[in-house]
Design goal:
The protein has about 450 residues and is α+β, with helices and mostly antiparallel strands. It has 11 helices and 19 strands. Helix 1 runs antiparallel to helix 10. It is globular, with a radius of gyration of 26 Å.
């Protein structure tokens, strides 16, 4: 996201404005505000309102509901990167007395801990957090809904546990940790746990009449890490860029990429979407979008980023139901990506040539399957099937002279060069699979050996 081409064409701007205008009208939202970031910068904002002469802008706060969970997940990943915990640790190791201490931190992040979707009555989103002063009040009895780790089941109490975990490990409140470790480093000065003017008011719109009812705005207490935050289009677009690129001041790119990796499949029939570690992942219009949706009484929100297109979008509205902010945010990404496709960086040759690595490039064979090995920047390699059948992958170089798979079937697997005593290359070993220069090369070290009579025809 470094290209200077951030200014949209007039036709693109009109299409974006038309999309949110339709959403505000059809969704009967008192107000609707949206923004698009491209190549790391806020490139467009727009709004619609039913109040004459008083429209919201990119600096107006709205409540963002469960988008808060992504912020909480980033704080947990920071603790992991600092070595203060492991995602495979049981919760009990760091936060005792919850009654569900056997679930892992990763399971809580990905909503696969089997916990209930909501806290016990009364409805936590419309009542003060003071009614749930302890974690036992948040979890209640019978909080386990499903076998641990077996399925995705969205859980608000699960993220309450993660907020308390952060407080236990850091020795400070979730709010203070959030401010010091995410909001201030990223410059999200208009994101807060309580509304700060200018901010929108939350409304319920009657389902059968064009009339309004104000919604309460409660401090959620222990439930805050699951949905407390207020934010703006400007701040959320900046946060969306962070989810695509990372920021060494907060979380390195490899860790945000890990957050964007599916952690558990959703139920059958729902395969167009899944969940990573604190982020939702969906397929729409042929592209992958990562981000999160959010809602609390009076507000709905959507944030999506297409990493491949370098485009992110945010949509916010102040109505309990009706405005399809998540759909609109996805549509805004699609409008920009299709009308103004990303301009690729100019091709450049590698700055230096390693002759030994260069000699490894070209065709290789796993049995009779043909592959091509390409040399990438920073001594990386890419293995691609040459006939459209086979498992390809990219590999990053390690200090010990091996390579680690980054995607697909070979993600995490080790690629190494096996040499003869004279130093010449015998074969490539990829997770025990042997790749040779010729199909079933007799002297290539193929497991099980090669028939000594070699290749032959079949007499007619």
């Amino acid at each position: 996201m470094t290209s200077p081409f951030t200014e949209f064409l007039p036709a693109t701007k009109r299409a974006l404005l038309h999309r949110i205008a339709v959403a505000q009208t059809e969704g009967r939202a008192p107000s609707f505000v949206a923004g698009v970031a491209r190549e790391g910068h806020l490139a467009w904002t727009g709004s619609r309102t039913s109040v004459d002469g008083h429209g919201p802008d990119a600096d107006t706060q709205y409540r963002i509901g469960s988008i808060t969970k992504t912020f909480t997940a980033v704080l947990v990943m920071r603790l992991r990167d600092e070595g203060l915990l492991d995602l495979g640790d049981p919760l009990e190791k760091h936060l005792s007395g919850t009654g569900v201490g056997d679930v892992t931190i990763a399971q809580l992040l990905g909503h696969s801990a089997g916990l209930s979707a909501e806290s016990p009555a009364p409805w936590w989103e419309r009542t003060p957090g003071s009614q749930r002063p302890d974690l036992g009040d948040v979890l209640g009895e019978g909080s386990r809904m499903h076998p641990v780790g077996r399925r995705h089941h969205y859980s608000n109490p699960g993220y309450t546990l993660l907020g308390s975990l952060i407080e236990a490990v850091r020795g400070a409140s979730w709010e203070d940790v959030l401010r010091g470790e995410i909001l201030e480093p990223l410059g999200l000065s208009r994101t807060s746990t309580r509304p700060e003017a200018p901010h929108a008011g939350g409304w319920a719109v009657h389902p059968w009449a064009d009339v309004l009812l104000p919604e309460p705005s409660e401090d959620l207490g222990l439930m805050a890490p699951a949905g407390q935050l207020w934010s703006t289009v400007t701040d959320l677009c900046r946060f969306a860029v962070f989810l695509a690129e990372g920021d060494e001041r907060v979380l390195r790119e490899s860790s945000v990429r890990e957050m964007r990796t599916p952690s558990v499949p959703l139920e059958s029939g729902d395969w167009e979407g899944t969940y990573g570690l604190g982020v939702q992942i969906v397929r729409k219009g042929g592209r992958t979008l990562v981000g999160h949706t959010g809602s609390l009484p009076g507000f709905v929100a959507g944030l999506w980023v297409s990493v491949d297109d370098g485009v992110a979008a945010v949509a916010l509205a102040n109505a309990t139901s009706g405005p399809l902010t998540a759909t609109v945010a996805a549509d805004l990404v699609g409008i920009v990506s299709e009308a103004e496709p990303r301009i690729p960086e100019p091709w450049k040759p590698l700055p230096e040539v390693d002759q030994e690595l260069l000699a490894l490039t070209g065709p290789w064979y796993w049995g009779t399957y043909s592959f091509g090995l390409r040399l990438l920047a920073d001594r990386g390699l890419e293995l691609l099937p040459l006939q459209g059948v086979g498992r390809g992958a990219r590999f990053t170089a390690e200090e010990d002279g091996t390579w680690t798979g980054q995607n697909g079937y070979y993600a995490g697997e080790t690629l190494r060069v096996v040499r003869r005593e004279d130093g010449s290359v015998l074969h490539l070993d990829l997770g025990s699979f042997v790749f040779t220069r010729e199909p079933y090369e007799p002297e290539g070290g193929v497991p099980g050996g090669v028939d000594p009579e070699g290749w032959r025809g079949l007499p007619l």
